[in-house]
Amino acid sequence: MHQEQPVITHLINGQPVDGGSRSADVFNPATGKVGEQVRLADRATVESAIAAAQAAFPAWRNTPPLKRARVMSRFKELLEQHADTICRLITDEHGKVLADSLGELQRGIENVEYASYAPELLKGEHSRNVGPGIDAWSEFQALGVCAGITPFNFPAMVPLWMWPMAVACGNTFILKPSERDPSSTLFIAQLAQDAGLPPGVLNVVNGDKEAVDTLLTDPRVQAISFVGSTPVAEYIYSTGTKHGKRVQALGGAKNHAVVMPDADIDNAVTALMGAAFGSCGERCMAIPLVVAVGDATADAVREKLVAEMARMKIGSGREAGCDMGPLVTKAHLDKVRGYVDQGVEEGAELVVDGRSLTVAGHEAGYFLGPCLFDRVTPGMRIYEEEIFGPVLGIVRVDSLQAAMAMIDAHEYGNGTCIFTRDGETARHFTDHILVGMVGVNVPLPVPVAYHSFGGWKRSLFGDLNAYGPDAVRFYTRRKQITQRWPSAGVREGAVFSFPSSK
Ligand code: NAD
C-alpha cells in the first residue's frame, strides 16, 4: 500500500495547476523508495497550457528584446543563488553525484547567459541600395508557441538548452520534462517566473505519451525540440513534421574513443574513466566503447582501466567523495544488467564484473558496479546498442582505418574522440569521421553554449542543432523585406521583365 505522497503538478499561466487523472511514482534511486508522485497531464490540461502560451505570445513577441534579455540575466542570478537546492533535487531523483549535478547546472546556466545576448543575436541583416533607392533586410521573427520534450538524464541542462533561447527570441513555450525526475525542472521554471517572465510565456506540463502526442498534433504549436532515445526521436520527428511543425529531434548514441599506439595512455585512461562511468554512463556523450589500435595498446589500456576501476567509490550521490551513484530506475538497472549477461553470452570477455555490488545502507538502491568487457566486436548487441549504463567495452583493431570504418558503419554518430600525439592523424580523423561532435584528446567534446550541439546519422533528426547559433535560427523564421520610397513626382512605367540589378 502506498503512503500519501506529495504530488508534483504543472505550471500553467504562471500558476501551479493540477490536471489529469493518472500519476506515476518518482523514485529516489539511491534508496529505491518513492519520493513523490507526478501527475500525468491529459489532453485537456496540455490544451489549456497551449492556450495560455498562445494568449501570452502577442505581448511577449512585442516586448523589446533587451527587456526579454534582462529577464534572462535575472534568471541566471536566481539559478546561481539556488544552485544547492537544484542540485539536491537532481541527485535525489536522478541519482548522479552532487558535483555532477552542479556540472550540468553550470552548463545550463551558460545557455541562459547566451540567451541574454538575444538583442545582439536578433539584429538581422541589412543591405542598402540593393537597387536604386531600394533597401533590403532580413528579420528573425518569433514563431509563436514552441514546445520541448526532454529526457531524464539531464533534467536541468537539457530544458535550459531549449526554452531560454526560445523565449528570448520572443516565443512562448511549453516544456514536457521527463516523468522520471521532474522536480528540478519544475523548480527552475518557477525561478524563471520569479525573475519576471510574464505568465504563460513558459508553461510546464508533466506527463507521458498522451501529453507529448497532444503537443505533436495541436495546430497551435509551431515547433518541437526533442531530446531522448532514437526510436522516440524518430517518432517525434515524423509525427511533428507530418503536422506541419518545425522539428529538431536529438536521439541516442554509442560513442567510440579511439586510442592510438602513440597516445599518452595514462592520460587517455583517466579521461576514459570519467567519460565511461560519470553519471553511471547515463549521458548521450558518454564513452561506452574504446577502440584500441594494436594489441599492445589494448593490453595497456585494459590493465590501467582495471586498476582505476578498482579505486572507484560508488554510493549515494549525496555522499561526499563518491564517483558514481545509482542508475535511474529499477527497470533501467535490470535492462543494463541484462546487457552485461548478454555480452557474456555473446562471447565478449567480462574483465570487471560489477553485477554483485551492494552499497551498505542502500541495499534497495539501483546500484551496479562498473563493468569492463574486452574483445567486443561489431554484431554483438553490447557493441551495437546504446546500453546507457556503467559498461565499457574494448574493441581491438589493427589500424586507424579499421577504427574509422567501424565508427562510420555504426548507426549512431553523436560523439567520438581520438587519443594521439600525432597532429596529422588527428586532422585526418576530425576531417573524415562521420560523427557530429569530435574530440582530440578530449573525451566529452560537448560544445560550449555559443556553439551548437548535435550528432549525425540516427543521433539527430532535423537540420538544425540544439542551442547556440543554430537555436536562434530554429526558434525564429526569416522575413525578407525589400523597400523603396519613391521620390515625389517620379513615376516609373510598368516593368514586365524580372527585377534584377542590370
Ligand atoms: P526517452 O526517449 O525514453 O524519453 C524522452 C522523452 O520522451 C521523455 O520526456 C518521455 O516522457 C518522452 N517519451 C518517451 N516515450 C515516448 C513515446 N512513446 N511517445 C512520446 N513521448 C515519449 O529517453 P530517456 O530514457 O528519458 O533519455 C535517455 C535517452 O536520451 C538516451 O537514448 C540518450 O542518448 C538520449 N539523449 C540524447 C541526447 C542528445 O543530445 N542526443 C542528450 C541526452 C539524452
From TrEMBL:
Keyword Cytoplasm present in the record's keywords: the answer is: no
Q: Which GO terms describe its molecular function?
A: oxidoreductase activity
Domain Aldehyde dehydrogenase per the UniProt entry, residue ranges:
20-481
Query: What are the EC numbers?
Result: 1.2.1.-
Q: Please name the CDD domains in this protein's record.
A: ALDH_F6_MMSDH
The UniProt keyword set, sorted, is: Oxidoreductase
Cite the InterPro entries for this sequence.
Ald_DH/histidinol_DH, Ald_DH_C, Ald_DH_N, Aldehyde_DH_dom, MeMal-semiAld_DH
Q: What is this protein called?
A: CoA-acylating methylmalonate-semialdehyde dehydrogenase
